What does this fold into?
Amino acid sequence: PSASSGDKSTFVVGYSQSNNAEPYRAQLNLQLQHYLKKYPDIELLPIADARQSSATQVSQVQNFITQKVDALIVSPTEPAPLTAAVEQACAAKIPVIVLDRTVNTDCYTAFIGGDNVLIGKKAGEEALRLLPDGGNVVELRGIMSNQPQIDRDKGFREAIAANPTIKIIADREAKWLKEQATPIMQQWLAQHEKIDLVYGHNDPMALGAYLAAKAAGKADSIKFIGIDGLAIPDGGIRAVQLGQLSATFIYPTGAQEAAETVNKILHGQPVEKQQVLGTTQVTKDNAAELYKQYDLSGQN
Amino acid sequence: MTAVRTPPPVKARGENRMRRTLSALGAAQAYIGLVLILAVGIATKGEIFLNETNLTNAVGAFASRGILAVGVTLVILTGGIDLSVGSLLGIASMTAAMMLARFSLEPWQIVPICMVVGAFFGFLNGAGTTWLRIQSFVMTLAMLSVVRGLDRQVSDNVSVGTQIAGPDGKLTPQAEAFQVFGTPGHNLFDRIYYPVLAFIVVCIVFHLILTKTRFGRHVYAVGGNPTAARLSGVNVTAVTIAVFTLSGMLAGFAGPIDAAYSASADPQAGQSYELDAIAAAVIGGASLAGGKGTIAGTFVGALILTLLDNVLGLNAVSDNWQLVIKGLIVVVAVVLQRPDLFTFLRGGSRS
Amino acid sequence: MTAVRTPPPVKARGENRMRRTLSALGAAQAYIGLVLILAVGIATKGEIFLNETNLTNAVGAFASRGILAVGVTLVILTGGIDLSVGSLLGIASMTAAMMLARFSLEPWQIVPICMVVGAFFGFLNGAGTTWLRIQSFVMTLAMLSVVRGLDRQVSDNVSVGTQIAGPDGKLTPQAEAFQVFGTPGHNLFDRIYYPVLAFIVVCIVFHLILTKTRFGRHVYAVGGNPTAARLSGVNVTAVTIAVFTLSGMLAGFAGPIDAAYSASADPQAGQSYELDAIAAAVIGGASLAGGKGTIAGTFVGALILTLLDNVLGLNAVSDNWQLVIKGLIVVVAVVLQRPDLFTFLRGGSRS
Amino acid sequence: MSSEAGTVLTMRAIGKSFPGVRALDGVSLTVAEGEVVALLGENGAGKSTLMNILAGVFKDYEGEIEVGGQVAHIHSPRDARRHGIAMIHQELNLVPELSIADNLFLGRERALLDRRGTEARTAELLRGLGLDLSPRTLVKQCKIAERQLIEVAKALSQNVRVLVMDEPTSALADAEVRRLYGVIRDLTGRGVAVIYISHRLEELEEIADRVVVLRDGRHIGERHRIDRDELIQMMVGRPLGEMFPRAAGGSTGEELLTVEGLSVPGEPGSGRTPLREVSLTVRAGEIVGVAGLMGAGRSELLESIFGVHRAAGGAMTLGGRPYRPKSPKAAIRRGVALVAEDRKAQSLVLGNTIGFNVGLPSLGRFLRLGVVAARRANAAVERQVRELRVKAPGIRFTVGNLSGGNQQKVVLAKWLLTAPSLILMDEPTRGIDVGAKAEIHALMSALAAEGKGVLVASSELPELLAMCDRVLVLCEGRVTAEFPRGRATQEAILEAAMARRQVTA
Ligand SMILES: Nc1ncnc2c1ncn2[C@@H]1O[C@H](COP(=O)(O)OP(=O)(O)OP(=O)(O)O)[C@@H](O)[C@H]1O
Ligand SMILES: Nc1ncnc2c1ncn2[C@@H]1O[C@H](COP(=O)(O)OP(=O)(O)OP(=O)(O)O)[C@@H](O)[C@H]1O
Ligand SMILES: [Mg+2]
Ligand SMILES: [Mg+2]
It folds into this structure.
């Protein structure tokens, strides 16, 4: 059954998420469910969680194809492994929205996602602002082979190249995890006399470093920059409000755009194939407002 | 035949023969868990579940882990454990992708190279557990770490794609050929998905090795009673090294399959696959104490794991509950396939 | 006392006494691996490495896993394995954070609750391995999955912070108090980091339990020969259930520590900690076959793992090479602490 | 049978040390074709060690071995086999999960298994030993005595020049022993040399051409004529008094244990004999023997009284009170002890120390505020171990490194330390040397004299006849006869033990 046929009264949508147990993705799930509720003729199947496994995700996508869903949303764990699966969906004439991370094929209906190089660049520009006289930067990386890690690193380095007195004196993989970041930061503090800024590829890592610095009594002399800006009590926006982070950058979930796009596709309306989302810098000034804007906890 | 479970009491000739037939297939009870899952699948999702493509997809996703499970079963049978297979699969898949991307090797060249790579590290595992007498848990855990580090180093932490396009924008002939290893949609006679075929062939080959050859008998003897094996002239060291090497070799073989399945080799590929592989073996009745287990059992264990995932997925059970239900069903499946189930249910005595 | 390694030949009274002292602390050789790492640390990073804060930080980061390792050691001593401790730590840390965030409980209320939660699941592990006679590997692997699912379900996959601010913008008294569990920078007498203290106390308590009490001897007996233990009047079932329950209880205790360390409970907290915990026990000389191991050994194993991380980190070894070197050093450390090292180096005979 | 025939084996100046133990020191041994040489010596004298060297168990040793006049380098079991040497080890060495046929040919299979051939050959060998078992039976389903015969069959299945038997009869009853002798005579007739280790001196008289005596790892002497007293003197280095010191017809007290119609179901697949309506009594101060063929259910009876198996019917009393033990723990609490049949599998934590093992069931006595008073416990263990003359460097020695007989003594020590009022003994002198055997017998008498009850199952009829006030005979799980002391004879007991035909008819 072709999904775009207008004679259907309800549409079934499947969503395969790469890993539910990351706060960012939990937030994305929540928002997607929220925004899709606005379309009573669209039914979202329970979200499939690949738990970081590409193999699991491929079979999830295949499951959805088997079930003949009317549209498919995929947030790939990795681009390459999901490529063939997305092509299979495409071959089965199921429209696919690729959310957040890309795949290596053109055979999808829309891509919606943030621009990690851009976000890295913005973070670097913030570092330039925070360290006008130069300084020592340490960088906490996500899982090395993850594309967002690569992009967030790339953008940041490009931006800080503008000021040669800003140096990255150490960088390590903390695997996106708060509790990995803390001991690494503790070691850096033991090794380096002067650390001026910590750049974490996500907020939890930046906050893990913050905890270490605070314990060492150096939190006030160091600036912390994170990425994600989740509107949850334990998230980056609150941390900016509390002055723990100097800034964070909202990594847009794209949930709202995805909901709108799905609706258009199902009703045969044209959609834009590449929807690259911008970012918003969270500062002390706009934190409260942004939190309110993105907080969905009360609306469920 | 090597019946590995306590067979029911032998009453009559006929019964004996039947028992033999069943135990040749593993142990009859091992299938109860599988039947249960099939029943749930059929009851809840009938056609969709039984659909050939669905079953192929489900088993295909697990094929590389299933092949690891066969190797791990060999090691477990000798009383050891192999935690490094996930990493070995990882480095083999990276090797395959690099051979393809850098040197445009043909599949028939890539597979042996990957198998040698895997066998080499597997051999080191065996050498460490025998000559250095390190517990296999530690030795293979260390190997897990070392090989993962090497994998990440050689790949520079960047995943390597296998869908290499030539100057004409189409896949190179080698990349095209490489897809037979398991890029979804590439099937033998347009029907048989290669990784599933590979998994089944590996199972049959190692089933025969374990049941029909001297080596197989020695594997059981080493796990069942190493002292007795040694005193009987079995070269325990050689057998131990051999099973680790074979396990590594199979991981090496699974590497290209994983790479083709993902159309790329990720530096993280295979991470935590060892737990799935061991779980398949143990759910299939292998005892971590050694000497007890069959390839048929491991095959069934692999099917239980993968079909369980499939059934839960098809029923759109929420992921958190999937984890819960999966754990519970594994317990139920294992209890159901206990050979003394009925004694047990009657509140029978302990062994 | 319960010396678990083959003691060296008894030569003279004096030597006997010394040996007894050493074996009371574990086995003398167990320390060689640790000494090696300390030596490398001092040689390469002298003052920075030996700095009290650095050592505290290093051990502190491992403390919760160290506590898991103690529980896992108990289970391993009986010949079982506990793969669920990481998940149990996870759910306990989530429990702690929620008790704090939702009900503003005091630390002294939170800890017992978390321990009961952990002990409850640990008890189920024990019940499954004894009454249902499921291999502990399978039972605890299933529990790992079930508990992780529950953890994610109750938390809705969102991490829960423990630094709860009151209306005045400052931490609530309960949140303030909660930090003693291990928020970095909160020390006893401004010097002793609580998690390190907790880890050491747990080690001492369980060292005493294993060496001084009847229960401790029963643990060794069950692992050494369950049949003989039962025929000697040991309630094997009760001992087995007890060690799993204690392991769960310790994981429950480690939960709040982990939550305080990160100032939040993450739904993924504790993932794969079981491997670190088991590795610490096994590097410390515990045999997965059961009956062999000490808490002192596990303590040393934990120190080896965490100080190794620290030394490599301080020397700014790249992440990839860290994995490689870590694996190699674990192998070297385990070989070095072999009690028959010197016989072995002379190419001695096998046992 | 003549020792003039050519020498097949010469062991010259063999020495072997273990950490802290000099097990062998300059021992030499020659064996001729067709000769049966008995190796005799106290527990821990070094007999097994010497033979293990011959069988290639140890890589390193001092001295030289010649087989068939040529120097043989034997450093692995394979080397030994190449030289035509096979050994039946003191401890059973079979793979429980494999079938009998697989076990017999383990290490000698063809690359591709020839199942049909090996099974046929196995069936033949089993028949030769009078074992009525299918070659496909898993070894774990076989009884201990059957396993011992399987070991014999395994050795016989090889084409051997020298066959070593290290206490092959320790678990066998008379009938099987006779059959084994037949097999040995058959072998020697074909020129095979046999080295035979046993602590049952009466066996040696029957089977051995020559006896070689070891003591403390040294060769003490050899004799062609078997003179019991002289041999004992050579073994222990001092003369020994009365072998079976139990006085006849001692006065006995009240009923200590009564068993009324005890029935215990057998467990499929475990090789356990079911018990049917067994009744017996043991009075305070009485030693009651249990005789029977292998598989008669003697072990099951003792184990059931000890609470190992759950009874399906019947009633017991102990010391006048009802006794329904649901576990060994409960039995121990009521003052019952069981010296189990299989020390390795059922009694000892081999990897742990003597002190640990001996103390295990009595820890409750040494508790202070839940803590084991180690000093007091160790002192008690030390005393008990010394009393039984366990040959070991100290109580911190690993049990697994003791000689077989000394391990058995450790088991006895462990149960004596619990100060039981009723002691159940299953083959208590299995593998024990004559000297120690006399001591254990004296000990049994002493226990009885103290008013304790002793129920002992043994395959050595002379032992039962000499020691027991009463002998019960079991056959297929039923009591088929009961003889008071004096009226029991070997013939009468055997007849009752083979009552199976009448019973099943
Ligand atoms: N692996 C070992 N490590 C240490 N000592 C050992 C080892 N094996 C044997 N011994 C010691 O060697 C000595 C000789 O033991 P062996 O087993 O040869 O005695 P045996 O004559 O066979 O005695 P038994 O009649 O009790 O079987 C004993 O003191 C024993 O403790
Ligand atoms: N697989 C097994 N696991 C544990 N114990 C076993 C196993 N098989 C046999 N046994 C024990 O070994 C003993 C059987 O050995 P044995 O040959 O002595 O038979 P039996 O019935 O005890 O006869 P008897 O003692 O009268 O000769 C039983 O007591 C049984 O409990
Ligand atoms: Mg001996
Ligand atoms: Mg018996």
